[in-house]
Amino acid sequence: MRILMIEDDRDAASYVARGLAEAGHVVDTVHDGIAGEAQAHAAGYDVLIVDRMLPKRDGLALIASLRAAGDKTPILVLSALGAVDDRVKGLRAGGDDYLVKPFAFAELLARIEALARRAAPEQGTTVLAVGDLVIDRLSRRVTRAGKKIDLQPREFRLLEYLMRHAGQVVTRTMLLENVWDYHFDPQTNVIDVQVSRLRAKLDLGLGRSPIRTVRGAGYTLDPAGDDRDA
Fold first, then answer.
1. Residue 116: which of 102, 101, 132, 136 has the closest Cα?
2. Domain carrying residue 157
Protein backbone atom coordinates (compact mmCIF):
# COMPACT_ATOMS: atom_id res chain seq x y z
CA MET A 1 0.00 0.00 0.00
CA ARG A 2 0.95 3.63 -0.44
CA ILE A 3 0.46 5.47 2.86
CA LEU A 4 0.74 9.16 3.73
CA MET A 5 1.49 9.96 7.37
CA ILE A 6 0.85 13.54 8.54
CA GLU A 7 2.44 13.82 11.98
CA ASP A 8 4.37 16.71 13.55
CA ASP A 9 6.28 14.51 16.03
CA ARG A 10 9.21 13.60 13.80
CA ASP A 11 10.48 10.81 16.03
CA ALA A 12 7.05 9.18 16.15
CA ALA A 13 6.60 9.61 12.40
CA SER A 14 10.01 8.05 11.74
CA TYR A 15 9.24 5.10 14.02
CA VAL A 16 5.89 4.38 12.37
CA ALA A 17 7.20 4.92 8.84
CA ARG A 18 10.08 2.52 9.46
CA GLY A 19 7.72 -0.14 10.81
CA LEU A 20 5.33 0.24 7.88
CA ALA A 21 8.21 0.06 5.40
CA GLU A 22 9.45 -3.14 7.06
CA ALA A 23 5.93 -4.52 6.61
CA GLY A 24 6.27 -3.87 2.88
CA HIS A 25 4.40 -0.58 2.48
CA VAL A 26 5.52 2.65 0.78
CA VAL A 27 5.27 5.57 3.20
CA ASP A 28 5.54 9.35 2.75
CA THR A 29 5.69 11.61 5.81
CA VAL A 30 4.70 15.28 6.15
CA HIS A 31 4.90 17.33 9.35
CA ASP A 32 2.24 20.06 9.15
CA GLY A 33 -1.38 20.36 8.11
CA ILE A 34 -0.96 22.61 5.07
CA ALA A 35 1.81 20.52 3.52
CA GLY A 36 -0.12 17.37 4.41
CA GLU A 37 -3.26 18.46 2.58
CA ALA A 38 -1.25 19.49 -0.48
CA GLN A 39 0.53 16.12 -0.54
CA ALA A 40 -2.74 14.22 -0.15
CA HIS A 41 -4.16 16.07 -3.17
CA ALA A 42 -0.98 15.65 -5.23
CA ALA A 43 -0.59 11.88 -5.03
CA GLY A 44 -2.90 8.90 -4.79
CA TYR A 45 -2.68 7.05 -1.48
CA ASP A 46 -4.40 3.93 -0.18
CA VAL A 47 -4.59 5.22 3.42
CA LEU A 48 -3.88 8.49 5.24
CA ILE A 49 -2.67 8.61 8.86
CA VAL A 50 -3.46 12.04 10.30
CA ASP A 51 -2.45 13.41 13.69
CA ARG A 52 -5.22 15.51 15.19
CA MET A 53 -3.08 18.35 16.57
CA LEU A 54 -0.92 19.66 13.73
CA PRO A 55 0.89 22.96 13.20
CA LYS A 56 -0.39 25.40 10.54
CA ARG A 57 -3.65 23.50 10.08
CA ASP A 58 -5.52 21.34 12.57
CA GLY A 59 -5.89 17.68 11.64
CA LEU A 60 -9.68 17.71 11.83
CA ALA A 61 -9.86 20.81 9.60
CA LEU A 62 -7.54 19.09 7.14
CA ILE A 63 -9.75 15.98 7.06
CA ALA A 64 -12.94 18.02 6.65
CA SER A 65 -11.36 19.90 3.74
CA LEU A 66 -10.34 16.67 2.00
CA ARG A 67 -13.84 15.25 2.37
CA ALA A 68 -15.39 18.48 1.09
CA ALA A 69 -13.18 18.17 -2.00
CA GLY A 70 -14.51 14.66 -2.62
CA ASP A 71 -11.44 12.77 -1.40
CA LYS A 72 -12.61 9.35 -0.16
CA THR A 73 -9.23 7.95 0.86
CA PRO A 74 -9.54 6.02 4.16
CA ILE A 75 -8.21 8.08 7.09
CA LEU A 76 -6.92 6.90 10.46
CA VAL A 77 -6.88 9.70 13.03
CA LEU A 78 -4.14 9.65 15.67
CA SER A 79 -4.56 11.67 18.86
CA ALA A 80 -3.59 11.85 22.52
CA LEU A 81 -7.18 12.98 23.12
CA GLY A 82 -9.06 9.81 23.96
CA ALA A 83 -12.35 10.93 25.50
CA VAL A 84 -15.55 9.73 23.81
CA ASP A 85 -16.39 13.28 22.70
CA ASP A 86 -12.95 13.65 21.09
CA ARG A 87 -13.29 10.37 19.20
CA VAL A 88 -16.77 11.36 18.00
CA LYS A 89 -15.43 14.68 16.70
CA GLY A 90 -12.68 12.89 14.81
CA LEU A 91 -15.10 10.51 13.14
CA ARG A 92 -17.66 13.21 12.34
CA ALA A 93 -14.96 15.33 10.73
CA GLY A 94 -14.51 12.54 8.19
CA GLY A 95 -12.09 10.13 9.83
CA ASP A 96 -12.76 6.43 9.25
CA ASP A 97 -11.04 5.24 12.42
CA TYR A 98 -9.52 6.80 15.53
CA LEU A 99 -6.50 5.52 17.46
CA VAL A 100 -5.46 6.99 20.80
CA LYS A 101 -1.80 7.64 21.64
CA PRO A 102 0.21 5.87 22.91
CA PHE A 103 -0.60 2.87 20.77
CA ALA A 104 0.91 -0.49 19.87
CA PHE A 105 2.35 -0.56 16.37
CA ALA A 106 0.72 -3.95 15.72
CA GLU A 107 -2.71 -2.41 16.34
CA LEU A 108 -1.99 0.56 14.07
CA LEU A 109 -0.90 -1.81 11.29
CA ALA A 110 -4.02 -3.97 11.74
CA ARG A 111 -6.31 -0.92 11.61
CA ILE A 112 -4.64 0.38 8.44
CA GLU A 113 -5.03 -2.97 6.74
CA ALA A 114 -8.69 -3.15 7.83
CA LEU A 115 -9.36 0.32 6.38
CA ALA A 116 -7.77 -0.70 3.08
CA ARG A 117 -9.88 -3.87 2.92
CA ARG A 118 -13.10 -1.94 3.53
CA ALA A 119 -12.19 0.61 0.85
CA ALA A 120 -11.15 -1.99 -1.74
CA PRO A 121 -14.59 -2.46 -3.39
CA GLU A 122 -14.89 1.31 -3.84
CA GLN A 123 -11.34 1.99 -5.01
CA GLY A 124 -11.05 -1.10 -7.20
CA THR A 125 -9.51 -4.51 -6.87
CA THR A 126 -6.44 -5.06 -4.75
CA VAL A 127 -5.19 -7.67 -7.22
CA LEU A 128 -2.66 -6.88 -9.94
CA ALA A 129 -2.13 -9.30 -12.82
CA VAL A 130 0.42 -9.24 -15.65
CA GLY A 131 0.31 -12.32 -17.83
CA ASP A 132 0.38 -15.36 -15.55
CA LEU A 133 1.86 -13.31 -12.67
CA VAL A 134 -0.65 -12.25 -9.99
CA ILE A 135 -0.23 -10.39 -6.70
CA ASP A 136 -2.77 -9.50 -4.03
CA ARG A 137 -1.66 -6.29 -2.34
CA LEU A 138 -3.59 -6.93 0.88
CA SER A 139 -2.94 -10.62 1.50
CA ARG A 140 0.56 -10.18 -0.01
CA ARG A 141 0.10 -13.41 -1.95
CA VAL A 142 2.08 -13.82 -5.18
CA THR A 143 1.51 -16.54 -7.76
CA ARG A 144 2.82 -17.32 -11.21
CA ALA A 145 1.03 -19.87 -13.37
CA GLY A 146 -0.94 -20.71 -10.25
CA LYS A 147 2.16 -21.52 -8.19
CA LYS A 148 2.71 -19.59 -4.95
CA ILE A 149 5.91 -17.54 -4.65
CA ASP A 150 7.21 -16.40 -1.26
CA LEU A 151 8.74 -12.92 -1.31
CA GLN A 152 10.43 -10.75 1.29
CA PRO A 153 8.78 -7.33 1.93
CA ARG A 154 11.28 -5.44 -0.24
CA GLU A 155 10.95 -7.96 -3.04
CA PHE A 156 7.17 -7.59 -2.89
CA ARG A 157 7.43 -3.78 -3.11
CA LEU A 158 9.80 -4.09 -6.06
CA LEU A 159 7.51 -6.48 -7.91
CA GLU A 160 4.41 -4.40 -7.15
CA TYR A 161 6.10 -1.28 -8.56
CA LEU A 162 7.21 -3.11 -11.70
CA MET A 163 3.72 -4.53 -12.20
CA ARG A 164 2.13 -1.10 -11.81
CA HIS A 165 4.39 0.03 -14.64
CA ALA A 166 4.24 -3.12 -16.76
CA GLY A 167 5.46 -2.56 -20.30
CA GLN A 168 7.24 0.65 -19.31
CA VAL A 169 10.95 1.15 -18.72
CA VAL A 170 11.54 1.73 -15.01
CA THR A 171 14.81 3.50 -14.25
CA ARG A 172 17.06 2.82 -11.28
CA THR A 173 16.31 6.31 -9.98
CA MET A 174 12.58 5.54 -10.03
CA LEU A 175 13.20 2.34 -8.08
CA LEU A 176 15.46 4.07 -5.55
CA GLU A 177 12.85 6.74 -4.84
CA ASN A 178 9.73 4.58 -4.85
CA VAL A 179 10.91 1.23 -3.47
CA TRP A 180 13.92 2.16 -1.33
CA ASP A 181 12.85 5.72 -0.41
CA TYR A 182 16.30 7.01 -1.40
CA HIS A 183 16.36 10.42 -3.03
CA PHE A 184 20.02 10.05 -3.94
CA ASP A 185 22.18 7.39 -5.56
CA PRO A 186 23.91 5.41 -2.78
CA GLN A 187 26.46 4.15 -5.34
CA THR A 188 25.78 0.49 -4.61
CA ASN A 189 24.48 -2.43 -6.62
CA VAL A 190 21.53 -2.91 -4.24
CA ILE A 191 18.98 -2.70 -7.07
CA ASP A 192 20.79 -5.16 -9.31
CA VAL A 193 21.12 -7.64 -6.44
CA GLN A 194 17.43 -7.41 -5.51
CA VAL A 195 16.28 -7.66 -9.11
CA SER A 196 18.48 -10.72 -9.59
CA ARG A 197 16.96 -12.39 -6.52
CA LEU A 198 13.43 -11.53 -7.62
CA ARG A 199 14.12 -12.87 -11.12
CA ALA A 200 15.31 -16.16 -9.67
CA LYS A 201 12.15 -16.53 -7.60
CA LEU A 202 9.87 -15.69 -10.52
CA ASP A 203 11.70 -18.10 -12.83
CA LEU A 204 10.07 -21.20 -11.25
CA GLY A 205 12.52 -23.40 -13.12
CA LEU A 206 11.10 -22.31 -16.47
CA GLY A 207 14.33 -20.67 -17.55
CA ARG A 208 12.57 -17.36 -18.10
CA SER A 209 11.45 -14.45 -15.96
CA PRO A 210 9.11 -11.56 -16.83
CA ILE A 211 11.74 -8.99 -15.73
CA ARG A 212 13.95 -7.71 -18.53
CA THR A 213 17.02 -5.50 -18.31
CA VAL A 214 16.98 -2.53 -20.68
CA ARG A 215 20.64 -1.68 -21.24
CA GLY A 216 21.57 1.80 -20.08
CA ALA A 217 18.05 2.54 -18.85
CA GLY A 218 16.70 0.17 -16.21
CA TYR A 219 14.15 -2.64 -16.19
CA THR A 220 10.78 -3.52 -17.61
CA LEU A 221 8.18 -6.15 -16.80
CA ASP A 222 7.36 -8.08 -19.97
CA PRO A 223 4.07 -10.03 -19.87
CA ALA A 224 5.54 -12.41 -22.45
CA GLY A 225 7.97 -13.59 -19.80
CA ASP A 226 11.13 -13.14 -21.87
CA ASP A 227 14.00 -12.01 -19.65
CA ARG A 228 16.55 -11.45 -22.42
CA ASP A 229 18.29 -8.09 -22.23
CA ALA A 230 16.94 -5.38 -24.51
1. 136
2. 127-221
